[in-house]
């Protein structure tokens, strides 16, 4: 092949330009420490880079979420421990107060401490983290618990936890209590649990942790309709203790129920039965009435009457309460039941049971009424135990969630290592490899320069003459 | 009987021929580095004997120079033009797509992944503290960054598209200018040939212009013989076809021109017939492919703008309404279903366009599809309501309180939902854009690399045939110099002979 001058110089330039290109690429890689500068350098690396960066960034954010969740939960946990201590102290004071050997001054001292503890409990439950009240569900902007100055009733998020809370027997007339209760209910100011307000944080890919504990789960709340003496919350128990410390042996509660007008005659009940119509709401909110026949054949006292009712309608549906003063019976929704209404009526045939039960009017439906409950301070020990258990259960649930967050944290730090490594492997330059490539590119470049400088240095002309 | 002075005449012809050879060699050496120069050779032949002779011995009449020819291969030229056209196309494509990559590509820390991650992080931070107004402001800021990132990308792509459009016009003007110059040269070549003057340098200039032209559009060059020139060489006519029409027809040329099409961009047509033309390949085709490629034939700028628009629309629709690309719905109704921090306001759209408020946005179209069709990557924005009051960001699912983060959690889920785009999550979709861009650009670069190697090789072949080799010329130089000396010596010999003859006469 004929080789011409321009071929030689073109080839030299071509090779220098190719080698410069290569040198430039390797140099950019080394100095930027990044394998690719543009997606076209390696589309696969480029798209993976986005994915991995996104992973790493998500993991970083999840770690922040976990830190925040942990702080929140620790604050809640500390508060619940303090609350537990307060309830334990209340129980100790209850034990102390139930002793007969106490003077009035001693009781007054205990009462002062109990009142103090009631405030402590409220303050503890109003614990905040970074300006947010941790037990307030979603409404973290305001302290959830407050004691109504005039009535002494406790409100949770502005609603009464227990609208018919225990009051000293005889202090207010029944009519006043009923009127107070009715006005709370008609204003819709009673606390009703609708759905849980769980604050959830993302603590991993597709993994959410509930970080908060809601106040009503710690203190309990009273069914609006119940007149049952064991339907209670922590504040009700404290109120009962305060009533007991005043030397009272009964308290009055207000609620919905069907009340008789005379004392029951259990002996006359033998062999009778009556119909109990229970009204509930179905999924669409429509009322559903169901009739049950309560067989009174083996009823001899209040306890056996309760058994007969349970046998007919099921346990924990309807409570039968006897008024401590009048001895009249009241049928009311049991704690936790979702009854809308109770109606009592005589069966179509047979002996009337309603008269023997306490002159109940056939077909009488529940109304707002009061019931006096006799008690001793001793009785409150069980209630404090129950309240303590409620708080403890809430704390245990929180503990389990804290464990979950803790495990998520461990998993995230593993993820962080893995994804950071993947990201780095994907897009970062292997320095050793790149240095060798750079050295080699430099060597080749220099060689091509040196060759080019000699390419046309000599021609035949140099050897003429 | 031979002529008495035949020897002198033969020798002097030898002198002339050698001198001509030396001149051609000098010319070649002078042009050793001249671009487009084609080496010339002496067309030297021996002269046939005179018609009058005696005896049996026929003695030649010496040498003569017929012409000075160019050493050129039309086959290699045609190959060069064809490959150069292709090189022009892919060089343009690869360079333009690299520019698109710097706009859309995401290999730096300021790219898409950072912007979208910041946006997600801000949502998470708000979910951690739904009542915190700084978290809300942060979400507004990061979402605004996301919007302006899309706005900037789209605007830059449109700017690039307009730049390319200007380049199209410039290229068309260049083509016209080359066509005119070639037609002029054709005229001059024909005139020169007609009077027997040299056309070599004119042809070199013309070939150089065709080289340039071939980089711009796909051309088909034919040279037909039409007759014989005065000096006996072939009279030829050169015609250049573009897209089946003659661009240059010997001494005439046909201009092409740009006119603005319905999209406000230039289309190319023949000025005289008004017929649209397709450049076929070359730089012009590269410009048009990247400028107009909507994904059907080529993935050019309109394709990427359309993809970004789809991204903006789908993200906005899913985020605002919980309605995905394929029409399926998320478990919640998106931002519009949520409530403001005080639980009073709902139905606020987070993303709108041109800073419209929710009510203006809803009034912008008859139904949801019409409203979201208005959103493009260039105009997507945060709604004016939220820009004015971050408390309207609907983190809450109902009126239960300021810490209700259910809706923002639902939005996080929506943004992480594979179903949002037909192709997956927002990153997946963006990934597919970047992946297809990266692949298309890498392909263009590879073809460009291949083509430049091919053109380099064809060019080397051309150089091998038509280039000047100084060694060769030096050899010729020596050869002609020797021949000249020899011829001069012959004259001296003949001179002696004549002297002897004349002396004989004198005596």
Detailed description of the structure:
The complex is a heterodimer of chains A (465) and B (507). Chain A has 10 helices and 16 strands. With 465 residues, chain A is an alpha+beta fold. In chain A, helix 3 runs antiparallel to helix 6 (234-245). The radius of gyration of chain A is 40 Å and the shape is elongated. Chain B has 13 helices and 10 strands. A 4-stranded antiparallel beta sheet of chain B has the order 3-4-5-6, covered by helices on one side. Chain B has a two-stranded antiparallel sheet with strand order 1-2. The mean pLDDT of chain B is 90. Chains A and B meet through helix 1, helix 2 and strand 7 of A and helix 2, helix 3, helix 11, helix 12 and helix 13 of B.
The helix content of chain A is: 40-55%
**Which two chains share the most extensive interface?**
A-B, 58 and 63 residues
Query: What is the makeup of the main sheet of chain A?
Result: 5 strands, antiparallel
Query: Segments of chain A where pLDDT lies below 50 for 5+ residues?
Result: none
Q: What is the helix tally of chain A?
A: 10
Q: Approximately how much beta-strand content do the residues of chain A carry?
A: 15-25%
Rg estimate of chain B, integer Å? 38 Å
SS elements, strand count of chain A: 16
Q: Strand order, biggest sheet of chain B?
A: 3-4-5-6
- Written as H for each helix and E for each strand, in order along the chain, the element string of chain B is HEEHHHHEEEEEEHHEHHEHHHH
Radius of gyration of chain A: 40 Å
Oligomer designation? heterodimer
Q: Helical region count of chain B?
A: 13
User: What structural class is derived from the secondary structure elements of chain A?
Assistant: alpha+beta
Low-confidence stretches of chain B: none
Any idea what the shape of chain A is? Answer: elongated
Mean pLDDT of chain B: 90
